[in-house]
Amino acid sequence: MAESLNSPADSSPSFFRGHWEGWKGYWAEKFAFLDDYGRFVKREKPIPSWSDSDVEEFIASDPVNGPTLKTAREAVKIAATGSIIGAISTAGIAWKYSRSPHGAALSLGAGAVFGWTFGQEFANHLLQLYRLDTMAAQVKFLDWWVKKNESR
Question: Which domain of life is it from (predicted)?
């Protein structure tokens, strides 16, 4: 008798279950980039930190992914500059007109986020990052770094 109650539910999923599975597949596709970094993040022993000289060594050793990684690092510098400019300018304007410490602090945080976003978009167009696969270059660097540290 228990089998007869479960069999109709098992044979055709409900509307909500089908809808949920569709959304789950959609978001799994959107966040698929996390699978690339999973093997570096979910480790028993964390990856040791690296220095700028290690990154420069990788850039010199890999003719395909090295220039891409170098360009991505330049884009981060532009985005950080945008973040600083956005944070200081919005906090300054908020302080000038309101003299409210909490308003200036909120403006500082929001300006930093907005400035980073605008700086990243500016760098994306300036350095033409849309033509490069920066994620692949970063994953190749992490692979190289793990292999280098395992051989030590």
Answer: Eukaryota
- Number of Cβ atoms within 10 Å of the Cβ of 50: 16
Residue 116 amino acid letter: W
Identity at 146, one-letter amino acid code: V
Q: pTM of the full predicted structure?
A: 0.72
Give the span between the Cα atoms of 114 and 125, in whole angstroms.
17
List the one residue out of 145, 43, 124, 40 whose CA is nearest residue 78: 124
Instruction: Render pLDDT for 8-44 as a digit per residue (tens, 0 to 9).
Output: 545 566 877 877 888 888 888 877 777 777 778 777 8
Q: How far is CA 35 from the centre of its chain?
A: 12
Per DSSP, the residues of 54-120 read HHHHHHHH-TTHHHHHHHHHHHHHHHHHHHHHHHHHHHHHHHHHH--HHHHHHHHHHHHHHHHHHHH
Q: What is the rounded distance in angstroms from the CA atom of residue 143 to the CA atom of residue 124?
A: 25
Closest CA to 144 of 72, 66, 91: 66
Q: For the chain, report the end-to-end CA distance as a whole number of angstroms.
A: 64
Structure tokens that stand for 98 in this block = 């309101």
Q: What are phi and psi of 46, to 5 degrees?
A: -65, 155
